[in-house]
Amino acid sequence: MNKHMVALLQLLLPLVCEGLHPPKQKCNETLMLKKLPECEKSFEDTMMLINPNQWCNLTEFIMYYYIFSKCTENKAMDVGCFWPNSLADGFITGIHRQFFSNCTSDKITWEDPPDEILTTLILIPIFLTAAMISLVVWCSKRADVFG
Ligand SMILES: *[C@@H]1O[C@H](CO)[C@@H](O)[C@H](O)[C@H]1NC(C)=O
Ligand SMILES: *[C@@H]1O[C@H](CO)[C@@H](O)[C@H](O)[C@H]1NC(C)=O
Ligand SMILES: *[C@@H]1O[C@H](CO)[C@@H](O)[C@H](O)[C@H]1NC(C)=O
């Protein structure tokens, strides 16, 4: 990255962080933490329908994971919280630990993808979510540093 790019990024990132500030309605974190377990419950229920030796099989769980991810997003938005946020992030990490802790990337199997376009549509928001979480974390760290 050259000097101009860095300067441009320094100019743009504060604007991005500005845009990430929570919506008008105040975020009720207590309420959000009370609602998120509903998403966990339905995700657990659906994962129980899958044979545990298939838990690293992306083809099997991707749809359920997508629904879970959407669920946490909706619940957070419902109570005026921005999504993703660090609380919901910790919650999702817990889910990963519970179900995917034994999955390594070479063990994650991707056979017979249901439909290429559908797959892309599902994966894009997941990657975007990961990117957004990093950005939100970065922005909040920056807020700590620069007050
Ligand atoms: C947040 O939600 C909790 C639980 O429903 C409620 O008791 C509390 O009054 C709410 N706080 C705000 C600031 O709305
Ligand atoms: C993963 O799941 C798909 C869809 O159910 C199945 O066709 C495939 O055989 C599974 N792969 C493995 C390695 O079990
Ligand atoms: C991971 O492997 C350990 C040891 O084999 C097992 O006890 C545990 O239940 C597994 N966890 C998951 C999420 O499959």
TrEMBL record:
Regions annotated as coiled coil: none
Signal peptide from the UniProt entry: 1-19
GO molecular function: coreceptor activity
Pfam families xrefs: RAMP (PF04901)
GO biological process: calcium ion transport; cellular response to hormone stimulus; G protein-coupled receptor signaling pathway; intracellular protein transport; protein localization to plasma membrane; receptor internalization; regulation of G protein-coupled receptor signaling pathway
Subcellular location: Cell membrane
Cited InterPro entries: RAMP, RAMP_sf
Glycoprotein in keyword set: yes
GO cellular component: cell surface; plasma membrane; receptor complex
Keywords: Cell membrane, Disulfide bond, Glycoprotein, Membrane, Receptor, Signal, Transmembrane, Transmembrane helix, Transport
Major site of localization recorded for this protein: membrane
Positions of transmembrane segments: 117-139
Topology within the bilayer: Single-pass type I membrane protein
Stored PANTHER family: RECEPTOR ACTIVITY MODIFYING PROTEIN RAMP (PTHR14076), RECEPTOR ACTIVITY-MODIFYING PROTEIN 3 (PTHR14076:SF2)
Family, as annotated: Belongs to the RAMP family.
Protein name: Receptor activity-modifying protein 3
